[in-house]
């Protein structure tokens, strides 16, 4: 689109059943955000902690303004000529984006622009009080227990690598291992395996000083052999047990791991885990094989889906929320050529799970530069609008509840920042 007016007209003509806030949010996630250096002048905001992946459109080494050290974790836009409701968006740094944040001279505050045309006012994510306390562990609190989703979710990536390693095994959109290398090179104090004592100390600080966080996610890369002499199940289970023993019921307990069999799921349930995210990433069988080669060989798509269904017997279907990476099914060279074909395929997966009481959720694919699929433009905005339309429709058809563990749903209230699915429910 060559202007904000054209962008708005496109929404009016094609997608006005989807809120304008969701339209801008998906476009910001798709394209990323550029920052003027004056946007960083006041520093009292929470910066990007790089809590698992880079989620950036350029490598750290090309960030001429050190945006990796200055950009906020999330922004919240509101107001403007369209009277937009408050909408939280995860930050994906892209100096070439059509969207830019800079200080408005007339308003004396940060504002969002599309090709230099003012759209809305901007807030940066606040710094939680527990970030400002002192801890015994030799790592910054934002490295051990960062918070995202405007303070709602504590994100515990306890293993910062993945044993699906290299082009033949890594999910082709995922930069967990590449991001690890670039962050270490840039001297960010990344911790490969986070000691349980650090996690517990950090959570003690959160328990004492914070009332905003309502959930935590325990996650990390896949473990296909052993890590610290433990299998994948035993490795993550130990954290779940220790956390939930020390802080029973303090936060909603969620895990993002591979799809485990029923007996293993029971171990996590017994350890106090409430919500399970066995992410299937992409619905189409052919694309799953090509885009998730490690998962495909190690578990296989059919078995993965079976385990998702089985896990609902353990956690209850409403608490099984597998993620898919929305848009990666359009990635060149393997993917669908049109938004309609892609949404049709992905909706088949939604229909499959939702008809069984399981609501998947989605994140917005970010073509990260070091990944095999990273050197291309993101899917069109049309895809995301049609996906949101389909998601809402199927979710309503089966009268499913709002997925738990994401905070409030709805326009002006949602805090889930990496797609607009909670904004439109
Ligand atoms: S399993 Fe795939 S998506 Fe998950 S961390 Fe490993 S490479 Fe990334």
User: In which order are the strands of the major sheet placed?
Assistant: 1-4-5-6-2-3
Bin the helical content. 25-40%
CATH architecture classification name of the largest domain: Alpha-Beta Barrel
What number is the mean pLDDT? 97
Q: Are any ligands bound, and if so which?
A: iron/sulfur cluster
Strand content: 15-25%
Taken in chain order, the helices and strands follow as HHEHEEEEEHEEHHEHEHEHHHEHEHH
The domain count comes to 2
The CATH class of the largest domain, by name, is Alpha Beta
Number of helices: 14
Any idea what the shape is?
globular
Oligomer: single chain
Number of separate strands: 13
Low-pLDDT stretches: none
The CATH superfamily of the largest domain turns out to be Aldolase class I
What is the CA–CA distance across the termini?
27 Å
Structural class: alpha/beta
Biggest pleated-sheet summary: 6 strands, mixed
Query: Whole-number radius of gyration?
Result: 20 Å
What would the CATH topology of the largest domain be?
TIM Barrel
Tell me about this structure.
By secondary structure, this protein is of the alpha/beta class. It has two domains: 121 residues, no CATH class; 288 residues, Alpha-Beta Barrel (TIM Barrel). It has 14 helices and 13 strands. Strand 12, helix 12 and strand 13 form a beta-alpha-beta unit. Helix 8 packs parallel to helix 11. The longest helix is centred in the last third of the chain and has 17 residues. The radius of gyration is 20 Å and the shape is globular. It starts with a helix and ends with a helix. The chain binds iron/sulfur cluster (SF4).
């Amino acid at each position: 689109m060559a202007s904000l007016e054209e962008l708005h007209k496109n929404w009016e003509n094609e997608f006005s059943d989807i809120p304008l806030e969701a339209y801008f949010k998906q476009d910001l996630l798709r394209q990323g955000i550029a920052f003027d250096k004056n946007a960083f002048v006041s520093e009292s905001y929470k910066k990007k902690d790089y809590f698992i992946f880079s989620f950036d459109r350029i490598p750290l080494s090309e960030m001429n303004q050190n945006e990796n050290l200055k950009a906020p974790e999330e922004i919240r836009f509101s107001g403007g000529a369209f009277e937009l409701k408050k909408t939280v968006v995860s930050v994906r740094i892209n100096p070439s984006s059509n969207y830019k944040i800079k200080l408005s001279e007339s308003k004396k505050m940060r504002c969002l622009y599309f090709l230099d045309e003012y759209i809305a006012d901007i807030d940066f994510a606040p710094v939680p009080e527990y970030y400002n306390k002192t801890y015994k562990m030799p790592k910054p609190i934002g490295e051990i227990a960062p918070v995202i989703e405007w303070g709602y979710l504590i994100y515990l990536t306890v293993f910062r690598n993945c044993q699906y390693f290299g082009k033949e095994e890594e999910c082709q959109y995922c930069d967990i291992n590449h991001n690890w290398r670039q962050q270490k090179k840039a001297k960010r104090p990344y911790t490969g395996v986070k000691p349980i004592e650090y996690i517990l100390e950090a959570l003690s600080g959160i328990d004492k000083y914070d009332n905003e966080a309502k959930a935590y996610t325990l996650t990390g890369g896949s473990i296909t052999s052993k890590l610290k002499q433990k299998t994948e199940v035993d490795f993550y289970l130990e954290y779940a047990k220790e956390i939930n023993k020390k802080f029973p019921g303090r936060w909603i307990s969620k895990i993002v791991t591979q799809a485990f069999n029923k007996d293993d799921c029971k171990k996590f349930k017994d350890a106090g885990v409430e919500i399970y995210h066995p992410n299937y990433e992409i619905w189409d069988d052919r694309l799953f094989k090509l885009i998730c080669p490690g998962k495909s060989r190690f578990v296989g798509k059919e078995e993965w889906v079976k385990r998702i269904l089985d896990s609902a017997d353990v956690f209850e279907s409403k608490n099984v929320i597998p993620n898919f990476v929305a848009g990666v099914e359009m990635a060149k060279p393997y993917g669908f050529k049109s938004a309609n074909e892609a949404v049709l395929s992905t909706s088949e997966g939604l229909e499959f799970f939702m008809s069984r009481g399981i609501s998947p959720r989605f994140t917005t694919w970010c073509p990260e530069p070091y990944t095999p699929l990273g050197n291309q433009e993101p899917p069109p905005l049309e895809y995301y609008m049609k996906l949101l339309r389909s998601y809402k429709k199927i979710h309503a058809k089966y009268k499913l509840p709002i997925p738990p563990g994401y905070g409030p749903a709805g326009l002006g209230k949602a805090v889930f920042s990496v797609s607009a699915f909670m904004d439109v429910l």
